[in-house]
């Protein structure tokens, strides 16, 4: 009987149960990592089955009545310390949310996700949105049902958004993306009037092994602990964590595109530094988990963009890079290189977008998702809406569906509410980085000297160690003294592109 | 209620439960593989915890009352086909055996295994058996208890032996190892009287990458399916299977010992071909599992020794090897190479022993294990007994404990009854290979031409596809027309070493 146990004993029981669930989930993550890196091709079928089995075990463990009893016993127990109390609150929230889903809904969602994923694959092959549309319509019906299951205040889309970014809502996003429109559009127009930047030299032949070594050296230089992680090759780069002492990144190498691997290394390195900075003693508990997707993305983008695409960063690394690739870069000045890696050019594909136009891609997806969920956009009209938005905001003409509405996998997976976290990540990154520059004396000089220790220490002190103890809003206010504002990103963008394009 | 279900439905339930357990066990195998190949060093602690959790989940699933009910419902049901009936019989046996262990015993065994493993590590570091002895004594007490828990006929050691080789017993092993003594000892003496063979050229510098490519080519050549497997590097070579379509081998490379990697590749390749040849439709069921350790080892040793150390094998591969390492082997004849790789030399360390003296190492361990379990050898005297046996049978003087009684990890793990399967493997291999030579017309000529397809097909037809449907004895009789006899190995050894040493 939990009632007869002391608080400490009950909390220990809670911890054991949660860590057991974490062990299963992390074993699943290992299976997933292996699947993307080393799995022999014929092994895929049984691997899928093994993943399904472990997923259902993790689900069973997390919905077990014993866990509910323990959580109820500890709820509101103020003799626990604040972190312990927060863990109980968050686990209870997670548990309750999990319980809301009727089994029939979960089964139907699984069926429709499978159906719509395969429809998307098929539609992409045929370059024909109409093949995807019926499955997507069914998916959206289910996502609407899900908003009712989860409950929400204001716009139904908030229910989905909160799955990825707790506390975010359409009010906040409308404000932010309105500023993207009103403030970034003129900046983009200004840039488009300048002479085009040459970046052809980034697409010469860059040897595979030399790229690999350079990328790995950057990761180490950033402070990524290779005794608590490793890098491997996969088709799509990702970061995965099995615990803060085993956080792995993957990358891909394109010998005809220098940027492909380098900034993917830095980006995933930012994610990995965050995971390595989570508290090991909170393993398996909410305060040992990343705050939110937006905060996770803030860490990858802070390193990728605010640091990794800065002039300061390349002041240090560019001479080394020139030595590695003298034939390609020997005659290219630091200034020309810096401009090339920051070239702004409206384009069709989100994942290839520059740091500035990227947010128009996200804004378009946000507007569409909101419209699909509240019914103001119909799946039938989606392609037209998409193409129209791209014409309007990015001044590009979508030539076909693969380069348009079929480009992202997210909707086929049922991930609605995910896209906005990409932009939030950049905006948090700008705000965090500005705070770090203010709070750490001589930060820029240290970065110019290839020394990221002060920046990493600042992140390890101010951002990484809290896990879900704070929401992203609370964390932002704690770190920067204010809630997320778009202005910090705008200031950063104006300064950077003003310098590059000379206005 | 199982009673209200049809046989087919009950069997389907059984299969689902068993495959779920297999999924967890195979996930464990992935965690284990990763641990030996790619795990960053700091990740070891949490990985251990994850492995413990999944192990306990697999154990819970396999001891669940629902499974027992299903097994009871299907027991003796003769409407099942013979393979299905055998699966039910074997799963019931496994289940019943599992149930015999009292929880207190399991906990104590886990504690003592941990203690004795660490004592062994410490003793090895200090090169002092007396550090290991007290923990080993405790382990042996538990193993004696285990023989009572499991039950046995004849010698108590049979209980432990049967854990690795069902149907094996001391009567059979006494006979076989007596023949090792009486028939191999004179052969060894005869060899020792011949001029020593030079094998220094095997210890020149052999480039790492060239070795890797050569080993991988051998694996492919043998018929190992690299789309259903892969090779990686680990400290100790091993084979692991997550299902017949994902069977992985590892190897190690020593640039100053050509033999180290090459025959480890062939050896593990033999294990892997067996696992790839198990029936996928029996995944998770006894008839989808390897027959026994002895039969598993027969497959590795058949390829490693009967094939991979034969003159026929190297007639084909040696010119290729010479081309790869012209500086080391350009002036070494095939005959000299063949003799070098088969040089017989009594030595101290089992894992470095040649194909012939190897069995004295095993015989010594077998005699010691039997004596420890029946009390005729005391742990206190073990070091003395060990050294005396080595003097007597291998004519070598053990200089210290690391090169003697502390060399193997097995006893510290509680693996008593395991060693004999190594010798059984060689003897089964000789008997199987002789049968294959009789049954496959022109087999030797095909091997001499580097074509192992007929041999592999024979193994895939006669040895691989049955899993545990037959015991090793039954399989041996089915394949070769008689039970295991030592004579086939002796004939093989006499022919081979007579040729090499010229008598």
UniProtKB/TrEMBL annotation, chains A, B:
GO terms for MF: metal ion binding; metallocarboxypeptidase activity
EC nos: 3.4.17.19
Gene Ontology biological-process entries: proteolysis
Coiled coil: none
Obligatory cofactor(s): Zn(2+)
SUPFAM superfamilies: Metalloproteases ('zincins'), catalytic domain
Annotated catalytic residues: 268 (proton donor/acceptor)
InterPro entries referenced in this protein's UniProt entry, alphabetically: Peptidase_M32_Taq
Keywords from the named record: Carboxypeptidase, Hydrolase, Metal-binding, Metalloprotease, Protease, Zinc
Cofactor binding summary note: Binds 1 zinc ion per subunit.
Keyword field contains Metal-binding: yes
Pfam assignment, any one: Peptidase_M32
UniProt catalytic activity: Release of a C-terminal amino acid with broad specificity, except for -Pro
Residues annotated as binding Zn(2+): 267, 271, 297
Function: Broad specificity carboxypetidase that releases amino acids sequentially from the C-terminus, including neutral, aromatic, polar and basic residues.
Family: Belongs to the peptidase M32 family.
Full protein name: Metal-dependent carboxypeptidase
Organism the protein comes from: Chitinophaga ginsengisegetis
């Amino acid at each position: 009987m939990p009632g007869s146990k002391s608080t400490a004993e009950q909390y220990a029981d809670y911890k054991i149960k949660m860590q057991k669930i974490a062990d299963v989930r992390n074993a699943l993550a290992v299976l997933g990592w292996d699947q993307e890196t080393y799995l022999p091709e014929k092994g895929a079928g049984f691997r899928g089955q093994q993943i399904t089995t472990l997923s259902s075990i993790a689900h069973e463990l997390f919905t077990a009545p014993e866990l509910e009893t323990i959580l109820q016993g500890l709820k509101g127990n103020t003799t626990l310390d604040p972190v312990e109390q927060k863990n109980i609150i968050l686990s209870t929230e997670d548990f309750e949310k999990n319980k809301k889903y009727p089994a029939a809904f979960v089964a139907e969602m699984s069926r429709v996700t499978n159906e719509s994923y395969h429809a998307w694959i098929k539609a992409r092959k045929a370059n024909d949105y109409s093949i995807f549309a019926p499955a997507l319509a069914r998916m959206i019906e289910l996502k609407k049902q899900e908003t009712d299951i989860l409950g929400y205040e204001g716009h139904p889309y908030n229910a989905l958004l909160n799955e990825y970014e707790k506390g975010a809502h359409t009010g906040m996003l409308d404000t932010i993306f309105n500023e993207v429109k009103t403030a970034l559009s003129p900046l983009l127009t200004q840039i488009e009037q300048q002479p085009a930047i040459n970046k052809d030299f980034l697409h010469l032949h860059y040897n595979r092994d030399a790229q690999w070594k350079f990328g790995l050296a950057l990761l180490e230089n950033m402070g990524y602990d290779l005794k608590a992680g490793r890098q491997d090759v996969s088709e799509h780069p990702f970061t995965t964590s099995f615990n803060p002492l085993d956080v792995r990144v993957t990358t891909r190498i394109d010998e005809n595109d220098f940027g492909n691997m380098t900034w993917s290394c830095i980006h995933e390195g930012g994610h990995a530094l965050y995971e390595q900075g989570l508290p090991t003693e909170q393993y398996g508990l909410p305060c040992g988990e990343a705050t939110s997707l937006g905060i996770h993305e803030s860490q990858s983008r802070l390193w990728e963009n605010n640091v990794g695409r800065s002039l300061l960063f390349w002041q240090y690394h560019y001479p080394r890079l020139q030595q590695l690739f003298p034939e390609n870069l020997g005659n290219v000045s630091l200034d020309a290189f810096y401009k090339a890696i920051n070239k702004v050019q409206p384009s069709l594909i989100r994942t290839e977008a520059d740091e500035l136009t990227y947010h128009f891609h996200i804004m378009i997806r946000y507007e569409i998702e909101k419209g699909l969920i509240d019914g103001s956009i119909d799946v039938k009209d989606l392609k037209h809406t998409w193409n129209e938005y791209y014409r309007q905001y990015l001044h590009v003409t979508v030539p076909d569906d693969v380069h348009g509405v079929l480009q992202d996998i997210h909707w086929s997976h049922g991930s609605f509410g995910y896209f906005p976290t990409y932009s939030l990540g950049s905006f948090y990154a700008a705000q965090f980085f500005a705070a770090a520059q203010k709070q750490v004396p001589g930060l820029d000089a240290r970065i110019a000297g290839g020394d990221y220790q002060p920046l990493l220490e600042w992140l390890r002190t101010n951002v990484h160690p809290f896990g879900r103890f704070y929401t992203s809003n609370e964390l932002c206010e704690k770190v920067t003294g204010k809630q997320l504002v778009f202005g910090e990103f705008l200031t950063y963008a104006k300064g950077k592109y003003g310098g590059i394009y000379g206005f």
